[in-house]
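Students often ask why we bother encoding 3D structure as a string. The short answer is that it lets us treat folding as translation between two languages. Here is a chain of 110 residues written in the first language.
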Amino acid sequence: HLCACYPGEQRGRHARHVDNDSEWLHRTITAIIYLNDGWTKDNGGEFRLYGPEPTGTSVAYDVLPVANRMLFFWATDDCPHKVLHCNADRFAISLIYVDGRRSIREAIGR
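And here it is in the second language, the structure alphabet:
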């Protein structure tokens, strides 16, 4: 679905969001695999998962994007997340499972 590079030279990051941000495309699960050999906390770029409150600031987890680490999380409104700024080029591949039947059924019903 998405290959991402966050450039460290520009302190790349991604703002807080949820992956199911469309009314008609029912995304259900996100998987991310990281491709960053030798990554350390000094490189930054943590994946930050917030608590389930839509606008809350409580942090549930910060995950370093080290090579061969894979994350799975619900692509729903109760899994807001972001990528903190990084100090080195950060690479990841994201896959999002879409409930195709539900998406088609609801598109036809409109």
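Translate back mentally: The two ends are 27 Å apart (CA to CA). Keep this in mind for the problem set.
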